[in-house]
């Protein structure tokens, strides 16, 4: 978010440092290659939204994360980022609290310096120059390098605004920033030098800025302003050729083009080149009549024609000027009434409805209002843009609150459905407990456990035989029955095989008896623990059954409380929006009335000149 501020200095308006509005990035989170080191998932999510310029979402996520899952692995980075985010919304009080804590905290000196830097910015924006200077003095050389250019401009800005020009000159003369920032530094240094009567040096620096070669639109605009300042300075010093040369360097289509056309016309006029002065002035006359420079050109054209003794043409142009002023006065009166009735505010609201996403605050689209052509100068002012940004933020917050308000019925419905579902299962739970199945199962377990305790290798190893082994033993028993029915002298080989197989099975069972016994003991212990856990759950479920009404009531109360808070905040936001709209309306009306007074002044001058010219012509006609 790179916005430029300029401070007026007499005839050399717009001469002050370019102070960018940007958000604090973590001072310790950057690696040597400039990448941010992410050590926490929630902090990373916040940065994701931050880099998408979704600052409201970033603030929300960071606050929720700090509340539920405190971010401890990023050191002071979350606080620094949160302070910068608050500052982007002009929330200087919470931002100041965070930066004061960081500034006075025994931590990394780069964090301390960053915090003092932001405190200086906040104080400067509040026009508290003493406090701003005190904060600046506490910034050490450990300030992160990426802040250096902005910090130097802030230092000079504080001094310039405090009219400490000599100190500002020392700061600006030592500036060694990038080409972009160095041009702004030269521009501001020129202003300071001129204020200290070092006119020649100041003009030389302005000349350097006026000659910069760039395609960057902000730099081109700065170059135009430098040429405009040089042009009017030369005009004041009666260096008309130089003035015309400077004015010619300014773009024909740009914020300074109308002033340049007016200036070049005066340069020719003062030099006695009246016909040449008409060329830029007539070009200017054909532009939007609402521009003050165009309105002035309506007077300068007939004035030049009088000098050329083209009095009839001058009369025509004076009459045209008066008609134009009458039209503009009628129009501006209509516009003032429309603004008073709320037309301009309605256009601003409509613009917000068109652009409701979070990035609305980063784009400046002119409202579709009949007042817009008259208020473009006001809208372009940094103070008014800050006012508009706050207004759009308030409208966005109102929409957010309305969205949350609309979610309340859904939460209530969800809670009701959950309560119905829970209550529908209560009879089943009570029935389960009433049947006392747990006691029956526990009794069976104790009976089986008692039997198990009697098992030992001496008693009967077959008690732990598995199903396959028992099946083999049963088959062997049938074979033995068959062998027993035959004479002892018969089937000798079969009897030996039977004894061998039976012995192998018994040996296998006896061999595995110890591990099987250990496994059964382990499973019985686990079953016993499960019974204990089941008992706890039974008690817990019975307890929940008794506390169910209170449980759901707590959620109901929380939803009702949130709904009340949202309603309270909505009313507060609406009241603040109304106050903001009244301020915007008042500024717009004041601006329009100033323009009306200016037009009336031009109208009086044109009427006087017309009368004077008529008298002059009448005197000539009466001459013998």
Q: What structural category characterises the helix and strand content? A: mainly alpha
Count the beta strands.
0
The separation of the N and C termini measures 73 Å
Strand share of the residues?
under 5%
- In percent, how helical is the residue content? over 70%
Based on CA inertia axes, which overall geometry fits? elongated
Low-confidence stretches: 1-23, 27-34
Overall pLDDT: 80
Biggest β-sheet: count, sense, barrel?
none
Structure annotation, total helices:
22
What is the rounded Rg?
A: 44 Å
Order of helices and strands: HHHHHHHHHHHHHHHHHHHHHH
Task: Give your account of this protein's structure.
The protein has 624 residues and is mainly alpha-helical. The chain has a domain at 401-622. The chain has helices at 41-51, 55-68, 77-88, 92-103, 109-125, 129-137, 148-161, 165-173, 179-195, 199-210, 217-236, 240-248, 257-270, 274-285, 292-307, 311-341, 343-354, 372-380, 382-434, 437-453, 467-485, 492-622. α5 runs antiparallel to α6, α11 packs antiparallel against α12 and α14 (274-285) packs antiparallel against α15 (292-307). 28% of the residues are buried. Mean pLDDT is 80; it is low at 1-23 and 27-34.
């Amino acid at each position: 978010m790179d916005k430029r501020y300029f401070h007026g200095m007499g005839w050399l308006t717009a001469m002050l440092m370019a102070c960018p509005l940007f958000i604090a990035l973590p001072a310790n989170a950057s690696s040597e290659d400039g990448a941010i080191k992410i050590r926490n998932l929630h902090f990373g999510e916040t940065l994701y939204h931050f880099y998408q310029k979704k600052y409201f979402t970033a603030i929300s996520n960071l606050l929720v994360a700090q509340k539920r899952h405190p971010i401890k692995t990023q050191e002071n980075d979350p606080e620094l980022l949160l302070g910068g985010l608050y500052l982007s919304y002009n929330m200087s009080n919470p931002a100041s609290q965070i930066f004061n804590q960081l500034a006075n905290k025994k931590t990394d000196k780069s964090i301390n310096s960053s915090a003092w830097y932001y405190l200086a910015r906040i104080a400067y924006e509040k026009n508290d120059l003493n406090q701003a200077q005190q904060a600046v003095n506490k910034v050490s050389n450990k300030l992160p390098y990426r802040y250096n250019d902005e910090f130097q401009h802030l230092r000079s800005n504080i001094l310039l605004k405090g009219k400490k020009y000599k100190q500002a000159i020392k700061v600006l003369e030592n500036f060694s920033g990038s080409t972009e920032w160095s041009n702004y530094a030269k521009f501001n240094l020129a202003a300071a030098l001129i204020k200290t009567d070092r006119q020649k040096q100041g003009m030389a620096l302005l000349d350097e800025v006026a000659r910069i070669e760039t395609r960057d639109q902000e730099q081109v605009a700065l170059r135009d302003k430098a040429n405009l300042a040089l042009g009017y300075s030369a005009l004041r010093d009666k260096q008309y050729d130089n003035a015309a040369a400077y004015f010619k360097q300014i773009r024909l289509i740009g914020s300074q083009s109308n002033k340049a056309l007016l200036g070049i016309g005066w340069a020719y006029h003062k030099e006695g080149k009246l016909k040449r002065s008409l060329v830029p002035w007539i070009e200017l006359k054909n532009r939007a009549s609402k521009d003050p420079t165009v309105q002035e050109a309506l007077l300068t054209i007939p004035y030049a024609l009088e000098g050329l003794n083209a009095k009839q043409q001058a009369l025509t142009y004076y009459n045209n000027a008066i008609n134009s002023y009458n039209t503009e006065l009628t129009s501006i009166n209509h516009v003032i009434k429309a603004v008073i009735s709320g037309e301009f505010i309605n256009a601003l609201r409509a613009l917000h409805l068109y652009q409701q996403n979070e990035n609305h605050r980063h784009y400046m689209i002119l409202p579709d209002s009949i007042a817009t052509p008259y208020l473009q100068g006001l809208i372009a002012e940094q103070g008014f843009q800050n006012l508009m940004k706050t207004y759009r933020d308030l409208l966005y917050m109102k929409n957010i609150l309305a969205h949350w308000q609309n979610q309340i019925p859904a939460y209530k419905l969800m809670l009701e459905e959950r309560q119905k579902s829970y209550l529908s299962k209560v009879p089943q739970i009570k029935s389960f407990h009433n049947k006392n199945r747990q006691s029956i199962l526990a009794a069976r377990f104790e009976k089986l456990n008692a039997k198990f305790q009697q098992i030992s290798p001496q008693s009967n190893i077959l008690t732990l035989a598995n199903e396959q082994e028992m099946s083999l033993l049963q088959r062997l028993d049938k074979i033995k029955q068959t062998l027993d029915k035959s004479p002892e002298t018969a089937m000798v080989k079969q009897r030996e095989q039977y004894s061998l197989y039976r012995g192998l099975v018994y040996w296998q069972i006896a061999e595995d008896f110890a591990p099987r016994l250990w496994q059964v003991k382990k499973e019985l212990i686990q079953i016993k623990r499960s019974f204990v856990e089941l008992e706890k759950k039974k008690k817990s479920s019975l307890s929940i059954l008794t506390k169910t009404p209170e449980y759901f009531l707590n959620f109901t109360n929380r939803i009702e409380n949130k709904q009340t808070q949202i309603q309270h905040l909505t009313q507060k936001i609406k009241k603040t929006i109304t106050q903001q709209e009244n301020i915007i309306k008042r500024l717009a009306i004041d601006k329009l009335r100033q323009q009306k007074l200016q037009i009336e002044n031009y109208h009086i001058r044109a009427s006087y000149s017309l009368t004077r010219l008529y008298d002059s012509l009448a005197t000539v006609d009466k001459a013998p």
